[in-house]
Amino acid sequence: MNSRQRRGVILLLLSVLCAFGAFAGVLSVISDVNSKVGPEVSAYRLARNVSPYTKLTSGQFEKVSMPKRWLSENAVTDLDEIEGKIAVTELREGSLMQTDMMVSSPELKPGEQEIAIMIDAATGVAGKIRANDKVNIYATFEGEQDGDAPQSKIIVSNAKVLDVGELTALEPRKDDRNQAAEAVPITFALNTLDTQRVAYAESFAQHVRLALIAPGSDGTISPGDRTYTLDKDK
Question: Domain boundary residue among 52, 71, 104?
């Protein structure tokens, strides 16, 4: 083996040693990163904005993977944790969901029933009613006999809202040109008598409207003020 061949062999060996050194360095960096980052776990990020007191559903979230050590202790890592919960504040798109951003949905008290009715989006304080709000429920009726004046009645005062659903398009009836094109399902917690009043109004009233009561206010109406006819202003 001449000197040129020896130099070639030496350079080849040096190249192999350098390659092994670089490979060992890469493995060392990967090991160091893994030791600092740790294992990854699933977390859930808001796919869109969610209004306060809105019922939480799986469709509002998207799954992401993150290092476990980067997540707070109260981060939601399982969608079963949102079952039966509502947002306590406005949730922004892209935010990671945490347990302190939600609370359990309000439950019925003894003697209460849950009833849901469709409310015209334009006349039902559109966009302002949330779960846990209190409202007065108004219904307008035609006169009972020919010549009788139409009446507006407060059929339930201080009705507790349990849930506000999604805006729903209604299929118009041929016999009702004044029917709303869109409505929102709103769920109330009411006693038996008030539940019957709401069911009756939904079936027979011309319109059912909601009046939002200011927080901390008493929306109770005296018996003499529960019915209104136009002649009261004459």
Answer: 104
Domain residues for the domain of 69 are 40-104
Does some domain include residue 48? yes
Q: Do 143 and 94 have their domain in common? A: no
* Boundary of a domain, candidates 104, 138, 154: 104
Is residue 175 located within the same domain as residue 201? yes
Asked if 130 contacts 213 with a C-beta cutoff of 8 angstroms, the reply is no
Asked if residues 28 and 36 have their Cβ atoms less than 8 Å apart, the reply is: no
| pLDDT in single tens digits along all 234 residues of the chain | 566 666 666 666 667 667 666 666 656 655 555 545 567 788 999 999 988 778 888 899 999 988 777 788 888 988 888 888 888 778 899 999 998 888 877 677 888 888 888 887 766 665 678 888 899 999 998 877 777 788 899 999 999 988 887 777 766 555 554 555 678 888 899 999 999 999 999 889 988 889 888 887 777 777 777 888 777 666
pTM: 0.55
Distance, CA of 234 to CA of 94 (rounded, Å): 57
Q: Quick check: is 85 in a domain?
A: yes
Residue 152 and residue 140: Cα distance in Å, rounded? 4
Whether residue 34 is contained in a domain is answered as no
Distances (CA, A) of 115 to 109, 118, 121, 164, 190: 14, 10, 18, 12, 8
Q: Tokens representing 17?
A: 């040693």
